Amino acid sequence: MAKHKKAPAPSVSELLRLVPAEPVDLAGIDPRGTPGVTGGKGAAGDAQQELAVQLADLQERLYASGRTGGQRRVLLVLQGMDTSGKGGTVRHVLGQVDPQGVTVAAFGRPTEEELHHDFLWRVERRLPPAGSIGVFDRSHYEDVVVTRVRGLVPRSTWSPRFGIINRWEERLVDEGCTVLKVFLHISREESRRRLLARLDDPRKHWKFSGDDIDDWGRWDAYTDAYEEALRRCGTERSPWYVVPADRKWYRNWAVTALLVEHLTALGLEWPAGTFDVAAERARLLTAP
Amino acid sequence: MAKHKKAPAPSVSELLRLVPAEPVDLAGIDPRGTPGVTGGKGAAGDAQQELAVQLADLQERLYASGRTGGQRRVLLVLQGMDTSGKGGTVRHVLGQVDPQGVTVAAFGRPTEEELHHDFLWRVERRLPPAGSIGVFDRSHYEDVVVTRVRGLVPRSTWSPRFGIINRWEERLVDEGCTVLKVFLHISREESRRRLLARLDDPRKHWKFSGDDIDDWGRWDAYTDAYEEALRRCGTERSPWYVVPADRKWYRNWAVTALLVEHLTALGLEWPAGTFDVAAERARLLTAP
Questions:
Q1: Which fold does the domain A12-270 belong to in CATH?
Q2: Is B102's CB within 8 Å of A100's CB?
Q3: Phi, psi for A206 (deg, rounded to 5)
Q4: Keywords in UniProt for this one (chains A, B) (predicted)?
Q5: Nearest CA of chain B to the CA of A127: how many Å?
């Protein structure tokens, strides 16, 4: 009988990546799922510690490359329903790396000035510089989701944006930017629980308004809009990843793992110095 | 015999603040000192944990206030000799708070464009927005220190800058910005050790050049330039703090404590909501 080689375990990226251009059925993905984790929360906690060390090391290499002429950068796009944990992901995942190498841009309601430009103008301005990890907490995808669901712009405006976004992201990839797009996938029931918890906590009232519950009431319309965006803007070079997000520990583990895998793929080495180590050492040691 | 009330322990700010406008003698301040810490490194580690929780809470209040119309912001200016630990302070101290509420600006050699503007132009552009903590890793103080020591501009250029800086910082304070200026005070011997360690670590070569050792050789000239800057730009509303920095654990503890004390002084409350909690709760609970 022929011996079969055991296939290597799939990467987290492979487990969570949507197949580009294929129809997306979010109802078929369990928001409480934990793909890639065996052993539950405890095991993930240990793995998270290790990943944090790797991520810090990789981020420093990225930063070093940017400071020595490299053009690599990473853009992490976070999308998801309200309460899906975009802010928590920034705090817990990006909180693991040197703040010096991270830029965070949160996109809310556009300003007057932003509305006088095309929809990519404001995101273009917040792209990370070479050597940095940039995070978009909401992004240009709001312009094919919230604007559509709330009827802020007509179909003739939002519909061409899928193609515009694809060409724009392609350009970023061409220029050395890794575009890592993550949809935080939360269930309607978990979202209801989190909204209720916010109402119970006066420290969270400032970030709450009746609009949030209006939007929660439009869950199905948002799901439809997201499914179309994930399908039409999932490309080979800039695919979408769906991270089950009902469990915060899994969400943090998975986004950390995605970052680690994408940064590892860049194969970054420490830049060499441009000086004579022995000579500089001698100068230091012989000085009074 | 009259009973004397025990004086309260001085704050870290009081312990480390330079008296405005008085002559500064850095040789008289021990770089291995640990003012405010009793019990050494272990005790400071425990205290650091508590301070980290306080800092995260205060930062979130600051952020909330900024998102609801408040104008408060904090600018942490880090200066010090090369190897004094500015980068490490950013990583360890600011790494304790939500990256969303922190902006970090590192100022290196000015670009061509920056040189075509006055020296405050580039720092003005990197000021933190309302609700944020901004960190300057090096700052406008380079323009009265390194430019002077290296002879890049004549005295007639750098000398008037002390007054210009004071008026500019005064404006920031007027506008609701807390200006927290920290000089990381390291000894020449510790600096030599750290430079040698960098030479021994190929992962650090990219941030090293012979210029660093040239500058290290000008230790006394840098000390003189700093002493004058600390004296002439230490004002009542924007004083300088000298943090002994030979011990990294103390440096991290002290800068965290300074931030906590300055943020506490702002007396920030959680902004109130603008909605009817009971009504919103009912809407959530009655939805299918």
A1: Rossmann fold (3.40.50)
A2: no
A3: -60, -25
A4: Kinase, Transferase
A5: 14
CB of A95 less than 8 A from some CB of B = yes
Residue with tokens 């000579």: A279
B83: left (phi over 0), alpha (psi -120 to 50) or beta: left
| Cβ contact A207–B67 (<8 Å) | yes
Q: Which residues in chain B touch residue A188, judged by CB atoms under 8 angstroms apart? A: none
Distance from CA of A10 to the nearest CA of B (A): 31
What mean pLDDT value characterizes chain A?
Answer: 94
The domain ranges of chain B are 12-286
CB distance A100–B137 less than 8 Å? yes
Which residue in B75, B127, B83 sits closest to B259, CA to CA?
B75
A87 touching B (Cβ < 8 Å):
yes
For chains A and B, CB pairs below 8 A equal: 130
* A38 near B CB under 8 A: no
How high is the pLDDT of residue B245?
98
Please tell me the distance in Å from B3's CA to the nearest CA on chain A. 43
**CB-based contacts of B122, cutoff 8 Å, min separation 6:** B107, B110, B114
Residue B86 is encoded by which pair of tokens?
A: 């500015």
pLDDT band at B209 (very low <50, low <70, confident <90, very high): confident
Q: Which CATH superfamily is domain B12-286 in?
A: P-loop containing nucleotide triphosphate hydrolases (3.40.50.300)
B270 touches chain A (CB under 8 A): yes
A115 pLDDT more than 70: yes
How high is the pLDDT of residue A92? 95
CB contact set of A246 (below 8 Å; sequence gap of 6+)? A31, A32, A186, A187, A190
Is A199 part of the contact surface with chain B (CB cutoff 8 Å)? yes
Query: pLDDT at residue B151 above 60?
Result: yes
Distance CA B174, CA B171 (A): 5
- Which residues of chain A lie closer than 8 angstroms to B91, CB-CB? 98-100
Instruction: Tell me what percent of the residues of chain A surpass a pLDDT of 90.
Output: 88
Interface ipTM > 0.90:
no
- A136, containing H or E segment: strand A133-137
- Looking up tokens 């490309």, which residue turns up? A235
Q: Is the pLDDT of residue A136 over 70?
A: yes
DSSP labels, A141-207: GGGGTHHHHTTSS-HHHHTTHHHHHHHHHHHHHHTTEEEEEEEEE--HHHHHHHHHHHHH-GGGGGG
